[in-house]
Specification:
Blueprint lengths: L2 E2 L15 E12 L3 E12 L3 E5 L6 H9 L7 E10 L2 E2 L5 H7 L1 E4 L11 H8 L5 H14 L1 H5 L10 H13 L5 E5 L7 H16 L4 E6 L2 H7 L2 E6 L2 E7 H6 L1 H6 L15 H10 L1
Parallel strand pairs: 1-11, 4-9, 4-10, 7-8, 8-9
Antiparallel strand pairs: 2-3, 2-5, 5-6, 10-11
Helix pairs in contact: 3-4, 3-6
This protein binds adenosine-5'-triphosphate.
Length: 282
Amino acid sequence: MPVTVQADTTSSQATPERAALLEFRNIRIVYDNAIEAVRDVSIAVPEGGIVALLGSNGAGKSTLLKGMSGILYTEEGVIENGVIRFRNEDVHHLRPDELVRRGIVQAPEGRRIFPALTIDENLLMGGYTRTTAEARERRDKVFALFPRLFERRDQIAGYMSGGEQQMLAIGRALMTDPVLLALDEPSLGLAPLIIDRIYEVIVRLRDELKMTVLLVEQNAQRALEIADYGYILETGRVVLDGIAKKLVSNEDVQEFYLGVSASGRKSLRDVKHYKRRKRWLS
Ligand code: ATP
């Protein structure tokens, strides 16, 4: 059973108590009829907030996003139990293109861009569901968010730096005018200054464009700095959730995800009480 950090009722930030735009309810996802990647996960993403989904390798973060985007079938994955609701409607049976039309859009991990096309062409491809004039208008908004992409708009995307490719992947997702944008590890492999640029944009998406963001990260420190609420996943389960500011100061989170503790950094294996708690949780 997930442990909920005591709710901060004085916070004006988006928390699951506010109307959820997107909800995962008791989701179980299995690959190849055999591998249970996600077990009974419930997550609420309130409208206009940034929700961080944290956890280490193999925790099930990407699997949940694939479930949300309707692309599990490409990997023999199936939602065996539970529902995903968006604006109070069940959406887990919808096709990926229908989900995008409803405004659920994911910028994938690994910066899957078209490497042989220019930045400009990549963006316009991302706006394929729109008229040419609309696509250009949206592209200009993406350029306003990422001036770096504007400066390099005629360059071949495959030759850009990792950070620029990440900006492009996010920019391309924005071309569809999402209501909810899911980002899969946007800080992966990037230098701190580049992460700063990208995270500034994520905050602007919430604060200026009123977008809802589901931020999947291994980088708990960074994600909790900008998120309103966080969920921590371990081996397919939510083990902790709470208001981001409270999670940052939570002892377990500090020890296992932020590398901070009174006696220095500890590994999960070193801490007996956590093992006991984990047993209790399972
Ligand atoms: P990472 O940060 O490393 O991407 P993650 O939290 O996103 O990790 P997932 O990729 O969702 O984790 O993986 C969850 C579990 O499901 C893991 O045990 C993984 O091995 C398994 N898994 C993921 N994709 C598949 C697949 N296509 N077929 C079988 N098992 C899979």
